[in-house]
Amino acid sequence: MSESLWPEVKPPNDPLPCDQCELVRQSPRLIWGEGNPEASLWILLDNPGARENREQMPWVCGARETLYDLAEKAGFLPHDLYVTYVVRRRPRRAYDKPRERQRCLQNLHHQLALSPPKMMLCLGDVAIKSFTANPDQSVKNARQHWWEESDIAISASYHPLAVRRRPSLRAYADADWQLCYAHYRLANTPIP
């Protein structure tokens, strides 16, 4: 799909809880999202990961490479998608995950209130548990199903890094992305 990074979406001037975020000390850079924020399909990941190498040059990390490949293989173009995160800073060491996820999710809910997508694909258990506020939710149980909450169709699949590290998950992820693309086409086809 792309050997270069999708365009980064600049954060608003006043993100909600960022003045007290523990992750500010680990990673001062706030990454709001990537891709097309007007897309009808949003992808939710746990965190933004690395967008630069050690020399601070733009870099497509392994997780992004796998994400881009899954999306392209299913039929998506980069402008079809917007990627956002549970936490908006790249963690570099241990932190109070429940507290920071809860705090940062306020930004996602604020984004959704301003410009809700038609669909949300949560990648990984952290994303699906956080988005649904259900600690018992899992990718294993949520994948290959679509349901609606607040007029947003929701599903889940495996995190691209899990797919990269465990090749046995690739066939499942491909099937999830193909179902997602079929659902996307249906949701974005004009009614004559």
- Kindly give the count of domains: 1
Q: Quote the CATH topology.
A: Uracil-DNA Glycosylase, subunit E
> First CA to last CA: what distance?
31 Å
- Low-pLDDT residue intervals, each spanning 5 or more residues: none
Q: What general outline do the C-alpha atoms trace?
A: globular
* Structural category: alpha/beta
Structure summary, number of beta strands:
7
Give a quick account of the main beta sheet: strands, pairing sense, barrel closure.
Answer: 7 strands, mixed
Q: CATH homologous superfamily?
A: Uracil-DNA glycosylase-like domain
Helix content: 25-40%
Specify Rg, calculated over alpha carbons: 16 Å
Main sheet: which strands, in order across? Answer: 1-2-4-3-5-7-6
The CATH class name reads: Alpha Beta
What is the count of helical runs?
6
What would CATH call the architecture?
3-Layer(aba) Sandwich
User: What share of the residues does DSSP label as strand, in percent?
Assistant: 15-25%
Order of helices and strands: EEEHEHEHHEEHH
Mean pLDDT: 87
What does this structure look like?
There is one protein chain. The protein has 192 residues and is an alpha/beta fold. The chain has one domain: Uracil-DNA Glycosylase, subunit E. It is 35% helix and 15% strand. It is built from six helices and seven strands. The chain has a seven-stranded mixed β-sheet. The chain is globular and about 40 Å long. The model has no long low-confidence stretch (mean pLDDT 87).
